[in-house]
Amino acid sequence: MSAWMEKGNLSTWKVIICLLFSTTVVVFFFINSVGTPRSNRSIPKPRGAQKTCPYQVSEQTITPLNNTKHFLVSAYMDQRVNGFSIRIIGIFKRDSIETLHCVFCCEGHLSTTTTPTTILPHSDHFGFPFGTTDVMCQIPENCNAIHVTLVTVPDKVMGFNPIWLPIKNKKINGNEGNKPQFDFTVCISNMFGKYNNVLQFVQTMEIYRLLGVNRVVIYKTSSGPDLDRLLRSYSKEGFLEVVPWPIDQYLKPSSGWLFSQYGGDLHYFGQLTTLNECIYRYMDRSRYMLLNDLDEIIMPYQHNNLMSLMDMLQQQHPNTGVFMIENHIFPKKHFEPSGKFHLPQWNKVPGINILEHIYREDPDRNVYHPHKMIVQPKMVEQTSVHEVLKYSGPLYKVPPEVCRIIHVRVALRGSLTLEQLNVDKRLWDFQEKLISKTDEVLKSVELLGSEGQS
């Protein structure tokens, strides 16, 4: 009996010890899992409101559209056309345009319905397979839209993880009537081919600054190493916005304007698209916009600055939204004979010295002669290079004696002799400040030669 009891007591103690050990282990793991979590442990996210929009927002200027041959560039609030509130600017394959639907990411939720679109290909495409295209649609009710995308099948929104475009130019707190930030913005549609015409670029930028331009916008595919330094300098200062434009990564862009002559996928590195994009980018920020090329200066001839010119033109032609400026070629092969502006400190600076070119061609008015434009952006819907395609209000061709383009380049009428050209020294009216500012800028980026400096 006693032996049995001793054996029973021993078994009882074993059970107790096992229970105590098991309890200790459980407590230890509980404390470590709850009280002192390890830093590398995966902690479940707290329950609560989840993002209902699959946020893959494009940060690029060119975004391929899923399941199509098209590309999206940007989306803007645009309520000027009845029945629509959003304009998406894109580059579409012209023979492959299909039905599309807008999908909106509202603030806090995904729109439950898609909205139909109206697709508006631009009439100017110069025969190229791809062309600038606008897509218009309406924001659904009860949606504070912040992003938009396009789909080919309306009930397959979530099936392919679409890339969203941010909606720009949104009106907030009744800011429609606010004064624009800038009076004049110049849109330079394209820089490509490792462009490195440094001297002409600086002179042009500084002439525009003297004329009252507040901002220059350049869509850049490529530039030369020296010009890159200038772009960084002007951008840091705030006078220049450089918009990346890697069109050559997606299409075969043409370096010419006519498909039958130059081939490729898209006109002149997408010049038509970038001009339109620039208008909408600055529509609410700039009172006037100048649409021209890198080697062109829109120059008033009876006024000292662009504001004085436009004040006169608006007074004489009220409610006009488009002012056409005639192009005048200054052949770069002809030089001012005295050489007074052949400055030694610019000898090693790559590019053209526009002060040396004073001989101007008369346009041949028996053939089409191109213009560039000064526009009020809020009165323009679509533009081409030398004319606007859709706009409101009157259009006015400015007489060349009032304002013309100074365009230093290869001669257009190469058969004209020097004696048949006009002497035009308008740029010399700015010589003192222009030379000083050009030297200052070139020196700041270490491109100014030492010869001739005082």
UniProtKB/TrEMBL annotation:
Keywords attached to this entry: Glycosyltransferase, Membrane, Transferase, Transmembrane, Transmembrane helix
- This protein is called Glycosyltransferase family 92 protein
- Tell me a GO cellular component: membrane
KW Membrane (keyword) present: yes
Residues annotated as transmembrane: 12-31
Entry's localization field: Membrane
Say which enzyme class the record assigns. Answer: transferase
EC code: 2.4.1.-
UniProt GO molecular function: glycosyltransferase activity
Q: Where is it mainly found?
A: membrane
The family assignment reads: Belongs to the glycosyltransferase 92 family.
Under PANTHER family, the record lists: GLYCOSYLTRANSFERASE FAMILY 92 PROTEIN
Membrane topology summary: Single-pass membrane protein
